[in-house]
Amino acid sequence: MSRSVTILGAGLVGSLLAVILSKKGYKVTIYERRPDMRSARIAAGRSINLAVSVRGWNALEIAGIKEAIEPIAIPMFGRSLHMPDGSAAYQQYGKNNEAIYSVSRGELNKKLMTVAEEAGATIFFDHRCTHVNVHTNELTFQHEDKEVKVQADLLFGADGAFSALRSGYVTADRVDASQFYLAHGYKELTIPPAEDGGFRLAKEALHIWPRHNYMLIALPNTDGSFTCTLFFPFEGAEASFAALKSDADVQAFFLKNFPDAVELMPTLLEDFRNNPTASLITTRIFPWHMGDKSALIGDAAHAIVPFYGQGMNAGFEDCTVLLGLMDEYGDDWEKILGAYEQKRKCNGDAVGELAIMNFVEMRDKVADPVFLERKRLEKE
Ligand code: FAD
Q: What is its EC number (predicted)?
């Protein structure tokens, strides 16, 4: 096999892609902007934990790490809705005990990196790609205080929503690209484990506090804690990040709107002050590949908002579809990348739209009395 592969980004998708391509016999090199999270104490990225669905499990099985991840995955069989009056309602996800699984993003990413290296891939950390010449595949990196040039053969951009390869594509002729920010952002907060180390809320559920224009959610972690995420307007009169200026504002707002959650959050004020407020972007681009030279994958191709819990899962599915096409077309990369784009672009766009629609469902409709009644009748 003659071609060597360069991947930008050792995140979830880049690391999984490296496993798959290395196992296929390609010589794979990854360049990652951050230090190695297995040795440095750095945050793993956009959320502490995330939900893995069937698409994700399929990909992890192919990578050979399903068994390693299963023990750190907590099934969530339904959503537990917390109403403003303190009452709660439970909605099961499926009739056959289907579940999505809460997994630590950091642990998953670390395992994928290690498996990629074991399969033969090399990862260069602290290499931030600053420029891609999409016509020649010449890459420029910032490494410590030096500029490093690399000539890539086959190149994948798995470097997330603000991908350097995507930026390179945007400068080329006949490339359509768009990005769209929600008026809402998010902030992560914590419900720590109970004093005996147990969970302070039902463990095997995704908890939602739907409040029409905003919501709080909580996913369980294996240490007994829950990571909460507040999805909240950036600006606005009363309920917005801009409006909560002081600790007293935050405390009063939470007491009024999330009374049953606030008593489980002893570090609320500290978390609210110290944790970043992050934005939520959807991106689209076409094409996803340039001849047999390069392609975008994962968030670099289709960054979506998190309300469908499918961003990583869809990126993982990009990898498994690519693997199927390698089996079909051998090493004819012009054909593989063309078919990959054809199969995946429409799905990337669709899941992006569904994710935005599900925000309205999660924050609003799930607490609607009509919706609750329909769910109750479905159960009967
Ligand atoms: P990323 O995870 O963004 O990884 C990109 C990697 O590239 C990073 O390591 C980064 O450091 C590196 N990089 C970036 N730029 C450069 C550069 N210039 N040079 C070199 N390296 C670079 N998805 C789900 O499936 N389920 C969920 O429950 C879920 N929950 C979410 C919750 C939140 C709050 C958010 C924001 C997202 C959530 N997602 C979820 C989406 C998920 O996080 C992404 O879809 C997933 O991380 C995409 O993986 P990726 O590898 O494509 O990109």
A: 1.14.13.9
